[in-house]
């Protein structure tokens, strides 16, 4: 669906970088009101980058997901809440065992309202005392988003066993359980 068609249908975009994009699709994909979740690259200076280029750390891009959603069914605030619960927002060097600049966390806002809500949610998380280190997730204006190669799309559906092993081995699931599910 084109962005003009999306706007005509009342749909909006949300873009989040949470480390490996494989691990960021499924948490959003199953919610009512989420129309699509696309793995891709954003935030950098190279048009239409490849996975290999992004992983090299020379493009400025991060792995991210772009979510097309219906705000009448799921709010941006709910998407922010889902996002925070998938990441270690205190890690400036990547996420879990994915290290380097292409795996840092960020919220890319598409409107002033999204920026305001993202800033408020970050401040609320920092004030909560849930983490003993500063929240380093950046909040940045959305720019061009480049969908990743087809084999990266919907990885959790295409390779469910590999996906589950990867999440577990990376430390993501243990971190989520320790910091979000236990409280």
From TrEMBL:
What general EC class does the enzyme of this chain belong to?
Answer: oxidoreductase
Residues of the Peptide methionine sulphoxide reductase MsrA domain? 14-164
The catalytic site is made up of 20
The enzyme's E.C. designation: 1.8.4.11
**Recorded catalytic activity of this chain's protein:** L-methionyl-[protein] + [thioredoxin]-disulfide + H2O = L-methionyl-(S)-S-oxide-[protein] + [thioredoxin]-dithiol; [thioredoxin]-disulfide + L-methionine + H2O = L-methionine (S)-S-oxide + [thioredoxin]-dithiol
Sorted UniProt keywords: Oxidoreductase
Q: Which domain of life is it from?
A: Bacteria
Family, per entry:
Belongs to the MsrA Met sulfoxide reductase family.
Family annotation (PANTHER family): PEPTIDE METHIONINE SULFOXIDE REDUCTASE, PEPTIDE METHIONINE SULFOXIDE REDUCTASE MSRA 2
What this protein is called in its record is Peptide methionine sulfoxide reductase MsrA
Instruction: Name the species this protein comes from.
Output: Alicyclobacillus vulcanalis
Q: Kindly list the organism's lineage.
A: Bacteria, Bacillati, Bacillota, Bacilli, Bacillales
The UniProt gene name for this protein comes to msrA
